[in-house]
Amino acid sequence: MIVGIIANNQDADPDQGYSVDDLVIRVLPSEVTYTHAASTTPSFSIFSQAFACSPIPPGSAHPLKSIKFISNTAFFWNGRMIRETEEITDLFRVAGFGSDTSFESLIRYRFNFLEQIPLDIRIKEQPSEETGLDINLKITLSDDREFVFEGLRFRVK
């Protein structure tokens, strides 16, 4: 998988402050494979042989099991002191996924990563002051494979 910090449709500069409305954490699969079945039998027909892909759902075989954000640094967020190594998943929400923007809804829905459709994540609320974040993102799929992305840095204002 690939994770990027996007602001205004381009890679975010970690030293520049962005509005939470302009900032997105984007998760995409980095490798996609397709399943197909093919069997050939000799034929003496004037019609040529054709192959088609099986109608397999276009999602990952293993849906999302959990998603966690962990802070690498201590910081102050809207009256709350965040400690180093504290889980801060509650500061984030899903973008563009129906009316329920919680990660729990993604897990209940058995969210599968699709080929080129990203999972976009946003911060829930504006900070009271410009704040730099340095976080780790941990994604676990239903087969217990873990994807850890360390040192994701950005500033929000």
Note down, in words, how this protein is organized.
The chain has about 160 residues and is mostly beta strands. The protein has one domain (about 1-30, about 55-155). It has one helix at about 105-110; strands at about 1-5, 10, 15-20, 25-30, 65-70, 75, 80, 90-95, 120-125, 130-140, 145-155.
**SSE string, helices as H and strands as E:** EEEEEEEEHEEE
Q: How many angstroms does the end-to-end distance come to? A: 28 Å
Strand arrangement across the biggest beta sheet: 2-1-4-9-8
What's the tally of helices? 1
Helix coverage percent of residues?
A: under 10%
Low-confidence stretches: none
- Mean pLDDT score: 84
- Sheet having the most strands: 5 strands, antiparallel
- The geometry reads as globular
| Overall number of domains | 1
Number of strands: 11
The SS-based structural class is mainly beta
Element layout with pairings:
Blueprint: E1 2-7, E2 10-11, E3 17-18, E4 23-28, E5 64-71, E6 75-77, E7 80-82, E8 92-95, H1 103-108, E9 119-123, E10 131-141, E11 146-156
Parallel strand pairs: 3-11
Antiparallel strand pairs: 1-2, 1-4, 4-9, 5-10, 6-7, 8-9, 10-11
Summarize the structure.
This protein has one helix spanning 103-108, and strands spanning 2-7, 10-11, 17-18, 23-28, 64-71, 75-77, 80-82, 92-95, 119-123, 131-141, 146-156. The chain is mostly beta strands and 157 residues long.
What distinguishing features does this structure have?
single chain; mainly beta; five-stranded antiparallel β-sheet; four-stranded mixed β-sheet; 4% helix
